[in-house]
Design goal:
This protein is an alpha+beta fold. The chain folds into four domains: 2-150, Methyltransferase, Cobalt-precorrin-4 Transmethylase, Domain 2 (2-Layer Sandwich), CATH 3.30.950.30; 155-227, no CATH class; 235-398, Heat Shock Protein 90 (2-Layer Sandwich); 403-478, Arc Repressor Mutant, subunit A (Orthogonal Bundle). Helices cover 34% and strands 20% of the residues. It is built from 15 helices and 20 strands. A six-stranded mixed sheet has the order 12-11-15-16-18-17, with helices on one face. A four-stranded mixed sheet has the order 1-2-5-4. A two-stranded antiparallel sheet has the order 3-6. Helix 14 (431-437) packs across helix 15. It is elongated and about 100 Å long. The model has no long low-confidence stretch (mean pLDDT 91).
Length: 481
Amino acid sequence: MTRAFALLSASLEPPRHELNELDWKAALSSDKKRLTEHLSAFANQPGGGFIVFGVGNTGTPIGVDDTAVEKIINQLANLGREGLEPPVALDHGIESYEGVRLLFVHVPESAVKPVHLRGKSLDHAFIRSGGTTRRASRQEIGTLMLHSRTPRWEELPASVLLTGAEVVSKLDGEPILTMLERPIPTSADEMLTWMAGERFVTEEPAGGANVTNLGAIAAARKLADFPDLSRKAARIVVYDGVNKAKTKQEREGSRGYATTFQAILQNVTTLLPQSEVIEKALRVRRTVYPEIALRELIANALIHQDFSITGTGPLIEIYDDRIEISNPGGLLPSKRLDRLIGTQPESRNELLARAFRRYKICEERGSGLLKAGLQTELYGLPPMKFDAGPNHFKVTLFAPRTFARMAVRERLEACYQHAVLRHYSDSTLTNTSLRERLKMPEKQRSMVSALIQEAVDKKLIKRADPENTSRKFAEYVPIWA
């Protein structure tokens, strides 16, 4: 309310006058059309504005009673919701000014502009000018459109208006501050200020704050506190065998992704098949899947999902012979399954992706799948498998399998992915490098040569130097390189 009081004081100084950011009225007007025009104007005003009820036409505070307050709030809320396009949500507060009770109605600036009368053309958009409300000119409408921005999903509110204490009770910022190696605030106000800087909340000028989708999905103490996100918790399902016939175990998260990512990863690794290896003269248990690959693939599923698909969330399914990591949302139109490794990512949720990189949960842009692929080869696993449908995307890691047990499709995909990984490592595929990747001895060189030739015939790879006719020393790159 500090801003509202400052604006009201400025407007009531002699000569008393209304401002572009503030209008005062004695009571609710019966002219609903004019009221809607005022709401349109303030929603188009940079920073929004206030309508103060209980101030007479001469600028003298006269106050409002409870009956008038209820009527004003209900009518303006209906006009903002039903009379404008896009709709505008209002906030209000009742405060004493010079001993008189006044109603402050806050009209926030709309990110999407121009805000105009519903059912009318854009020409019916209004602005504030010289302390009054008037219709915007064509040129002014164009300027409003230039300053219009569709809010990202992460910026939209996930909660109703909350007090600062309520926000801090619903969001857990301490684990994230620890990741950032920053000191923990000692007061709720300091924590709220930090959360606003992280875009976890949007503070209202009239007081209180809304938790954003970014704040809830990253730092919620309980996702169930945010109804639209309650089904977005990551699920881990372990099956007995190689199909879904029998479930051995199921675990479901309940907190925000950033605060529990390490716990999700630890849960997965403890549920996976493990083997003992000797490391620095000590026996150490290791999963059959590389942790770096698991980390990147799980982070990708959390970050790049389509949050507009309701009723489902990220899913990690563990079978005896593979692990499948899937998320809601198909591939973006600009993406292809065969060009996912190493290419610049395009995220639906850029603010969430940026936050996860800052928290060191995932790698820099474009390197996640590249590192996962390199680790898959290092562990001698079959190639990663990518699947995409209209409303889902899935990555599968397979348990170790010898070349003899790989299907023809897997062998070709292993050859292609190896060429891609070598290309992004500023190198080329050779018979020797592919044999090392497939853990095959020198005596099987001819089998690898046959595989390379088949990949060339199917236009998966090509010779790096078309003029080099030697098969023994030939080098290959992806077909698109």
